[in-house]
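All the exercises in this workshop are built on plain-text protein records. A record pairs a protein's sequence with a compact description of its fold. The structure tokens are whole numbers drawn from a learned vocabulary of backbone shapes. Once this layout is familiar, the rest of the handout is easier to follow. An example says more than a description, so a record of this kind follows.
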Amino acid sequence: MEITNVTEYDAIAKEKLPKMVYDYYASGAEDQWTLKENRNAFSRILFRPRILIDVSKIDMTTTVLGFKISMPIMIAPTAMQKMAHPEGEYATARAASAAGTIMTLSSWATSSVEEVASTGPGIRFFQLYVYKDRNVVAQLVRRAERAGFKAIALTVDTPRLGRREADIKNRFVLPPFLTLKNFEGLDLGKMDKSNESGLASYVAGQIDRSLSWKDVKWLQTITHLPILVKGVLTAEDTRLAIQAGAAGIIVSNHGARQLDYVPATILALEEVVKAAQGRLPVFLDGGVRRGTDVFKALALGASGIFIGRPVVFSLAAEGEAGVRKVLQMLRDEFELTMALSGCRSLKEITREHIATEWDRPHIAPRL
């Protein structure tokens, strides 16, 4: 069967992967309301296309933190990719590089920063969890710097792991033949079996619950890399991120895996963009499955988007070729959406190109 859209990889991954692994990637927290909402909220935003504009040439290129990329579609950090495919993060890194875009490597990757760097050239960011032992953090950041990573994406929504009931039922644990490669030499690379989620136990033991804004400042004393704060959903925290010296914000609810009943990221985006007042770029993570979704995020002020689950599902289905295909499909759909909306470059995508239910009533129908 020919794959014609990103979502079709989900069913293939479900068929191919062990239940424990698929559930780990696919599930959200508690009632999974936010998980569904991350997708559904996009369907409540409609287009106001402009017609009779010469769209024979379309430019999707952009810059992120000064790095030129081919499109505003990037790869979010997702943990333990070798559970999906033997090549794991290597395959993802090569696919991102081939597409001319950015890959973010998870702290909890099953390949190390050095291994991912060895796949060849590419712009890569490193996602960071802050461990109780700050020497571990400092060491990890230095290694990412030395391996040529260009930014740190600091995850700030996980002082504790969200309650993911599928992982509790499945007694989720990293398969014994894999390790969290970045921590292998520090005796933190293995995950013990637990009578709940092995990952929840690992986080409870290792991740620092006392993390606060002062640590964002501390991070800047140990690295010159720009810091993206990942997990911001409010105007208040946007202002604090700016005060703390963040280089950018990723509006994220952790793929709906942390606190359930937070809004879909596409609905939180505009509040964050308004509070940022153009002082730093704002990116969106969560629920993007179509080129139309990418356009909607940019129309609401995002500088780019990150995809997570589509990467691991396509990786499980077809390895590197699957990830390449996901990036290509999203690129093609986004280009088509731009053309049919009358936009030739990213700067031509404006708030006027969409209508939402919270807009003036004469523009947006009651959805």
The chain has 13 helices and twelve strands. The CA atoms of residues 217 and 244 lie 6 Å apart. Confidence is low (pLDDT under 50) at residues 362-366.
